[in-house]
Specification:
Layout (H helix, E strand, L loop, with lengths): L1 H22 L1 H36 L4 H26 L3 H34 L1
Keywords: Membrane, Transmembrane, Transmembrane helix
Organism: Blautia liquoris
Protein name: Stage III sporulation protein AD
Length: about 130
Amino acid sequence: MDVIKIAVLGIVGLILCLIVKELRPEYASYISMATGICILLLATGKLEYLLDMVKKMEKYVPIDSTYLYTLFKMIGITYVGQFSAGLCKDAGYSSIAGQIEVFCKLSILALSMPILSSLLDTIQGFLT
């Protein structure tokens, strides 16, 4: 049911933007940002639930918490980057949106390097 609520919120925000854009185009971007922020705030509740479940699973299976926190950082970078790039695209600044996306991809790549290094060390340990 939460997906339906989010979808309805997004569609209502879209319709408001289309109506307001005819009368006051400068307010349409504010409505778009407010709608996006509301959806993002509602999504944080799901992320909080996921984090709690991962902590419960961590008790049963010995997983290095560094890997899990790195994964959550990557998810956060993805959400924030996609949200801000989408806002820039809506405002007509697709070149800035592209730069945000490139920076986020590079940040995720940089975060994943220690994990990749650890994986390669493990593989090397099996081969020797």
